[in-house]
Amino acid sequence: MSKYVKALLIKLLRFTVNFSLFIGLVYNEPFSHVLILIVILAPATYLIGDLFILPRFGGTVALLIDAPLIFSGVWAVHVWLGVSLGYGHYFLFSLITIALCVEEFIYHIYMERNVFGMDRPTLTEMINRL
Fold first, then answer.
1. Which end of the chain is more exposed for a tag (fewer CB within 10 A), N or C?
2. Residue ranges of the domains in the chain?
3. Average of pLDDT values for 56-74?
């Protein structure tokens, strides 16, 4: 299996777990909404943040691009689906964005080391340096 396909499958799995947990279980929205979010946002953030931005500008810039992309993407899909949005939804979108960005930090290290072949310390090595 190609390292790019494997990386995309990992991202799809992460998005599936987070959207199912937050949107499916917490807000009890139908799985079709979750599936639409996964199909639109996972490939979009993979192409823009991970394949284009990450190798050129690094993990910090890629994370700064991913955060608004995830938040605005979740918001736009909900508007497109006709979901009535309240303050609770914006709080939920923020939680989803924070959870995915924490995971993206670790995922970017994986991408740099295993997909792009960059010599970067592991997360454990980075923590041990503190």
1. C
2. 3-123
3. 93
